[in-house]
């Protein structure tokens, strides 16, 4: 079994913490870090404990265009199909986790499922009518690309080829057009391929998007009464415990060399503007009454 | 017992009539009802032209907030929003119906639906993907458009009476009461996009990849049609179950569909007879008569008065909004 994650240089500490958590349950398994950068740019005082595969080793035909086209965040998702294909050349079963993930239990059940399936994907939500804004999930993807697993097979290869073709050219975050980097393409996967498992384990890939529907019991390490498998801190405030773990692997800030800087978060301004416009639409309603 | 229904306004009665006839020809045991998103009494109708199938008007199925929905939605949104409300009505008022099938009115059935009815014994819900293979081209609509509007086509859905199906319908009704909008930037596309959740939220949902189902412009790239001994087949080995003439207009009979540019009759002579027979059936069922009726649920265009006053009253806050946004 081979595990891998993907990161920019700044996220090497997170990737290491993920590696440590995987190794504590799967000592024998391989863990690789796919780096969307050059190894020589890793600051000298940082000692990588896990093998790092830099992007140039994966040989993505259209990578130069992708680096110009995409932001750092988009690029990080869009190279995933190519890294997955790369690792499937060296292992029978490959599992991907976002680098912001921590593993809390063994993943043998995934390895077992891979005997019967070639592709495993995980939904963002599992329960109808609980998340306060389900349409936001429709907009960003029924499935979450922060966890995936594949078995070496023609089907997995076909899938990764198709996925990579799309992420190479249509991997923007542009929700109005039905694109969300690598993630929204996954909607098609159960329709296009035969041996696809939609893994509905309650404890897998816990994150900001599914917290409203998952009851976590720390004392028993369970989620909705099933074992807690993994937590993905992507887009969430890091917990104190998680921060502590990352601190062990200090690294000097290094900006990614590929991809465009991520746009600044304009969420708060937009929310404010929307509320101001609500007052204006009230003026419209008042005039309609005249 | 299996109950099938469609939804349309009076101007689409020729299509609904044609669907009903095709269903009856191959499946006389299936009861067919036309759900009418319209009112009959307001119109001067030649009743001899009405199809023989029961018509069930929208205001007769006890939707709690019908007035609110009519207010919120345009005619397309309203037409699609009421789908689960009709299913709910049938579940409650037709206890003899074990299976309920919805077809868009612009569908015709070509076969006995044995495959579907057998699957409804094993599954709670049957849905059909728009496509089961990639397009591999840059035409319209493409794979991201399908993602944006919903991976399953909701011109067809079938459910088997069960607790889970009822839960699914309840959830769907709740969503469609307020959020059956076309608002792609916010993840909304009428009833259809919501249904992407079905296989992850509910058990025993069959993603039915049988190539004879819901054949339409969006999947003709993977489906070749041919007639063998008077029967229609897909890729020469799969019996055509039903064809969906989405976006086809008699007035523009040389265009396959107004929603796409991938499929045309010149390159696809195999589908020409399928459209010819559809056109003839519509004409026979008085398409030219029905198409002129105006639906009672179409809202009159909103007239805004005092435009200049509005503009100046709103300007200071709009400027502020633009400022905080940038």
From TrEMBL, chain A:
Q: Which Gene3D superfamilies match?
A: Spore Coat Polysaccharide Biosynthesis Protein SpsA, Chain A (3.90.550.10)
Cited SUPFAM superfamilies: Nucleotide-diphospho-sugar transferases (SSF53448)
Name of the protein in its database record: Nucleotide-diphospho-sugar transferase domain-containing protein
UniProtKB/TrEMBL annotation, chain B:
The UniProt entry, under Pfam families, shows:
Glyco_transf_8
Q: Which InterPro entries does the protein's record reference? A: Glyco_trans_8, Nucleotide-diphossugar_trans
User: Any coiled-coil ranges, and where?
Assistant: none
Instruction: Mention one GO molecular function.
Output: glycosyltransferase activity
Instruction: Keywords in alphabetical order, please.
Output: Transferase
Per the record, the domain of life is Bacteria
- Protein name as annotated: Glycosyl transferase
Species annotation: Emticicia agri
Q: What lineage is on file?
A: Bacteria, Pseudomonadati, Bacteroidota, Cytophagia, Cytophagales
């Amino acid at each position: 079994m081979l595990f891998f994650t993907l990161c920019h240089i700044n996220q090497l500490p997170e990737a290491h913490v993920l590696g440590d958590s995987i190794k504590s349950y799967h000592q024998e398994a391989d863990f690789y870090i796919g780096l969307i950068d050059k190894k020589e740019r890793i600051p000298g005082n940082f000692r990588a404990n896990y093998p790092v595969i830099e992007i140039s080793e994966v040989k993505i035909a259209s990578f130069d265009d992708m680096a110009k086209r995409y932001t750092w965040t988009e690029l990080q998702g869009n190279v995933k199909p190519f890294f997955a294909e790369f690792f499937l050349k060296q292992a029978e079963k490959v599992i991907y986790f976002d680098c912001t993930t921590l593993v809390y239990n063994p993943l043998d059940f995934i390895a077992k499922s891979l005997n019967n399936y070639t592709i495993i994907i995980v939904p963002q939500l599992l329960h109808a009518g609980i998340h306060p804004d389900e349409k936001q999930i429709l907009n960003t993807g029924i499935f979450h690309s922060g966890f995936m697993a594949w078995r070496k097979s023609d089907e997995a290869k076909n899938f990764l080829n198709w996925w990579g073709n799309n992420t190479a050219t249509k991997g923007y975050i542009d929700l109005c057009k039905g694109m969300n980097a690598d993630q929204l393409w996954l909607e098609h996967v159960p329709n296009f391929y035969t041996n696809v498992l939609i893994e509905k384990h309650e404890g897998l890939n816990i994150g900001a998007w599914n917290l409203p529907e998952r009851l976590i019991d720390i004392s028993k390490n369970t989620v909705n009464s099933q074992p807690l498998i993994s937590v993905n801190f992507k887009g969430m405030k890091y917990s104190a415990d998680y921060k502590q773990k990352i601190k062990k692997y200090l690294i000097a800030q290094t900006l990614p060399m590929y991809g465009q800087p991520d746009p600044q978060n304009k969420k708060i301004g937009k929310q404010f503007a929307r509320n101001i416009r609500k007052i204006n639409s009230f003026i419209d309603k008042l005039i309609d009454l005249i | 017992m299996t109950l099938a229904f469609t939804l349309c306004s009076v101007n689409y009665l020729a299509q609904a009539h044609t669907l009903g006839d095709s269903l009856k020809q191959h499946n006389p045991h299936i009861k067919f009802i036309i759900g009418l998103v319209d009112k009959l009494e307001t119109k001067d109708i030649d009743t001899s032209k009405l199809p023989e199938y029961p018509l069930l008007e929208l205001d007769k199925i006890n939707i709690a907030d019908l007035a609110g929905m009519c207010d919120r939605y345009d005619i397309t949104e309203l037409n699609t929003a009421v789908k689960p409300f009709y299913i709910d009505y049938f579940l409650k008022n037709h206890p003899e119906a074990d299976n309920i099938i919805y077809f868009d009115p612009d569908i015709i059935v070509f076969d006995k639906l044995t495959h579907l009815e057998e699957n409804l014994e094993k599954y709670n819900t049957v849905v059909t993907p728009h496509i089961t293979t990639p397009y591999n081209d840059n035409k319209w609509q493409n794979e991201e458009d399908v993602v944006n509007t919903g991976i399953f086509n909701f011109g067809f859905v079938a459910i088997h009476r069960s607790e889970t199906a009822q839960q699914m319908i309840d959830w769907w009704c709740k969503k469609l009461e307020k959020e059956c909008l076309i608002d792609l930037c916010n993840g909304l596309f009428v009833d259809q996009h919501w249904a992407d959740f079905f296989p992850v939220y509910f058990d025993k949902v069959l993603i039915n990849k049988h190539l004879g189902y819901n054949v339409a412009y969006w999947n003709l790239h993977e489906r070749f049609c041919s007639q063998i001994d008077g029967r229609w087949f897909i890729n020469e080995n799969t019996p055509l179950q039903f064809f969906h003439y989405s976006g086809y207009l008699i007035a523009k009979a040389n265009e396959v569909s107004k929603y796409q540019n991938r499929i045309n009759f010149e390159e696809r002579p195999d589908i020409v007879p399928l459209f010819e027979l559809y056109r003839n059936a519509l004409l026979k069922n008085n398409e030219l008569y029905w198409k002129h009726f105006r639906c009672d649920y179409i809202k009159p265009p909103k007239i805004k008065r005092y435009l200049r006053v509005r503009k100046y009253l709103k300007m200071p806050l709009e400027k502020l909004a633009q400022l905080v946004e940038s």
